[in-house]
Amino acid sequence: MSKINLNELDPEFKHQVAEQPGGEGLKACFACKACTAACPVQPLEKRYDPRKIIRMVLLGMKKEVLESDFIWLCSSCYNCQEVCPQNVRFTEVIYAIKNLAAKEACVPPGLTAQRSLLKKHGRLYEVGEFENEKRLKFGLPVIAEHPEDFDALLPDQNSQQTNESNVTT
Question: What is the C-alpha separation between 37 and 39, in angstroms, rounded?
Fold first, then answer.
């Protein structure tokens, strides 16, 4: 494990996470490791340790947490929440962390590609002429692409940043 440079820590990070929907229980964690013991991902990927993720957030390791790929490994099984004696609701905390990561454009390339496909086709895969011909042979209706339906849900990042910068304080 590398050394932690105290000058690079963000003492406000834990508050930022706790202010997000789902992040409220973060500070109640007393590191018992019940969440990690119940996690089905942790035996397969040692870097994914819910207790350590919470510790990193509480220490203020914002850059390390938000830029890491391990925050995206949560299977959302809620096992951690079932066993937590402090009702931290870690799955909800990880969603709060992911939301902060997305706001800071720290998203894995795979999710960025999925977003592009949704914007282009209105779904995660293109339904072309070949697929529709097969559907017709089976008596199924043709699928038309409607990417415009997702424009409201997935605004361009540039326009989203513009809208956020237009918010007055």
Answer: 6
Query: How far is Cα 121 from Cα 117, in angstroms, rounded to an integer?
Result: 6
Q: How far apart are CA 111 and CA 139, in angstroms?
A: 34
Give the list of residues 6+ apart from residue 16 with CB closer than 8 angstroms, or none: 62, 100
Inter-residue contact 93 to 17 (CB < 8 Å): yes
Last residue of a domain, one of 71, 87, 103: 103
Q: What CA–CA distance (Å, rounded) separates 45 from 90?
A: 17
Q: What is the pTM of this model?
A: 0.71
Where the chain has pLDDT below 50, the residues are 159-169
Q: How far apart are CA 33 and CA 57, in angstroms?
A: 15
Show the domain range for 158.
Answer: 109-165
